[in-house]
Design a protein that fits this description.
The longest helix has 18 residues. Helix 6 crosses helix 7. This protein has a seven-stranded mixed beta sheet with strand order 3-2-4-1-5-6-9. The chain has a four-stranded mixed beta sheet with strand order 8-7-10-11, covered by helices on one side. The model has no long low-confidence stretch (mean pLDDT 92). The chain folds into two domains: 198 residues, 3-Layer(aba) Sandwich (Rossmann fold), CATH 3.40.50.1240; 100 residues, no CATH class. By secondary structure, it is an alpha/beta fold.
Length: 308
């Protein structure tokens, strides 16, 4: 049975990212920080081998793909970010002021062309077609890496999970140079890691600051697959419940076995284990779960804890 592993990488920080403005298919270059992030990513990828390297043709992704070293890189515009039309280059405040009807449609979760560009269903189809094309090129399995954009990665993951009708989606927004690794084996999809930017030093990372009504739960696996941990199921569940009640506006640390953490991720994502399975994280690996009164979201999954 062949297995295909695909690593999806969001581009490094662009000038538009640093400026806090919308960017879709506009060609904003990498910022100084972004170029430093690429160097750090390159050091991490120097130990990896991939059979296929793809990138969006937009420069912020194509320049991030240079982290793959001397590998041959294919540029494909199908992996571009969502086209945001007239929102391009605007702050959120400017969008709210200039496009109130579209903002109302967004709040009501109605389908519309963002800024006159693409609709989310159009992006879903483009992302799905791109992944299907990749999988057809590698019928015997192997390893592929794709340098692309946050919107495309979110579109793919929400589709693989079967949660596109939910809001918000249960996997957190991709960080710059964050890596999400999935495995395909027949009809089974496995998530190995999500939003892994552990290759970056602290000053280049994007920590999540919870609002006053949210709590970030840092989950650390204290036993690897098949081992018996000292944290029982009841204690682990009680710790999660306690974090929800007492950790508002902050970060709470909870330890559990790798199986407990994988099961919690499965429930948080609302995915069927028959079709999409979270791989049990290795011992001393870390994941972060965002909790609020109305929803829960995995900000990242399966990161080396020593880097957190």
């Amino acid at each position: 049975m062949s297995t295909l592993e695909v690593c999806l990488v969001r581009h490094a920080q662009s000038v538009s990212n640093a400026s806090g403005v919308w960017q879709g298919q506009g060609d904003s270059p990498l910022s100084d920080m972004g170029r430093t992030q690429v160097e750090a990513l390159g050091r991490a990828l120097s130990h990896e081998q991939y059979d296929l390297v793809l990138t969006s043709d937009l420069s912020r992704a194509a320049d991030t793909a240079k982290a793959s070293g001397g590998a041959e890189v294919e540029h494909d515009q199908a992996w571009r970010e969502i086209h945001v039309g007239d929102w391009e280059g605007l702050t959120m405040e400017q969008v709210v002021e200039r496009f109130p009807e579209q903002i109302e449609a967004l709040k009501a979760r109605r389908t519309f062309a963002i800024g006159g560009g693409e609709t989310w269903p159009e992006v879903f189809q483009r992302a799905d077609d791109s992944l299907t094309s990749l999988r057809r090129r590698m019928p015997d399995g192997g390893r592929a890496i794709v340098f692309t954009h946050g919107g495309i990665i979110a579109a793919l993951l929400s589709g693989l999970l079967g949660v596109r009708s939910r809001f918000p989606w249960p996997l957190g927004r991709m960080r710059n140079t964050g890596r999400t690794t999935v495995r395909f084996s027949e009809d089974r999809v496995e998530l190995v890691a999500h939003n892994d930017d552990s290759h970056l030093p602290g000053e280049l990372r994007q920590p999540y600051a919870p609002r006053h009504d949210q709590v970030v739960v840092r989950l650390t696996s204290i036993a690897s697959d098949g081992e018996v941990g000292h944290t029982g199921t009841a204690d682990f569940n009680s710790a999660i419940k306690s974090a929800r009640k007492t950790g508002a506006g902050g970060v709470v640390s909870v330890s559990g076995t790798s199986r407990q953490i994988a099961d919690l991720a499965q429930r948080a994502a609302g995915a069927s284990a028959h079709e999409f399975r979270f791989i049990e994280p290795a011992q001393r690996h870390s994941s972060k779960l965002l909790l609020s009164e109305h929803h829960q979201m995995l900000l990242d999954y399966g990161l080396p804890a020593i880097q957190i």
